[in-house]
Amino acid sequence: MAKHEQQERPADAERSWQLARACFDRAEFSTNSVQRAELAQQGIAAARNALAQQSNSAPAHYYLAMNLGQLARTKTLGALRLVDEMEAEFKTARALDELFDYAGPDRNLGRLYFQAPSTLSVGDRKLAKVHLDKAAKLAPDYPENQLNLIEAALRWNQLGTARKELEAFDSKLDEARRTFSGEAWVGAWLDWNGRLQAIRSALRKPADTPARAGGMRKAP
Which of 30, 31, 139, 213 is most exposed, with minimal Cβ within 10 Å? Predict the structure, then answer.
């Protein structure tokens, strides 16, 4: 649907970034790298088309970065170059609209710095903490923002902080399930519930057993 609408009105920036969003969503459920790369390339092209029409579109910069991330997942060589571009696009999206997608630019910058290696790439623990904290401050009720903080604390062996953040998360969990409900959120909750289970398991294990870190996600 999104591709058909964008083809009918290629000069419509919003339709183009909506197509980029749809490509990212579909790529999340890809079963192989070839399909993921094809969808990512379509999303990148759609986002670049949106930016050609409206260069200050926060969603277009954001979904360009998200699809670059999908493409990077399919590559061994060349992934570092894509990571640098992702970082730049998330920063631009953040400057234009830091609240977009429940503080998505800060959330994904934080995850990028958290997950990327510090050698030969952009990995940076201090920057990860800054952006993950900022996302949680800007959109404190969005579950993934809090999950990211807990996973980071576990990775850094800050078990007291992880338990404190988990307690805060649990206090808002029922309300979050009511707020982010419906068919559009089913996939997100599958991811969040799995990560929450891994966090609880990790906090019952020795300190050297980290929780599974989730991937970049956006709101449905």
Answer: 31
Return d(Cα 153, Cα 165) in angstroms, integer. Answer: 9
Evaluated on CA atoms 65, 70, 73, 74, the torsion sign reads: negative
8 Å CB contact between 64 and 51: yes
> Which spans in 31-185 are helix H?
33-53, 58-72, 79-96, 100-115, 125-138, 143-155, 159-179
Task: Please report, in tens digits, the pLDDT of each residue of the chain (220 residues total).
Answer: 455 444 555 568 999 999 999 999 999 999 999 999 999 999 999 999 999 999 999 999 999 999 999 999 998 777 888 999 999 999 999 999 999 999 999 999 999 999 988 887 899 999 999 999 999 999 999 999 999 999 999 999 999 999 999 999 999 999 999 999 999 999 999 999 999 999 999 999 765 455 555 666 666 6
User: Dihedral sign, CA of 181, 186, 191, 193?
Assistant: positive
Q: Quick check: pTM over 0.85?
A: yes
- Tell me the HSE value of 204 on the side-chain side, using a 13 A CA sphere: 6
Total count of residues recorded for the chain? 220
In this structure, are residues 96 and 61 in contact, taking their beta carbons and an 8 Å threshold?
A: yes
User: What is the C-alpha separation between 188 and 144, in angstroms, rounded?
Assistant: 9
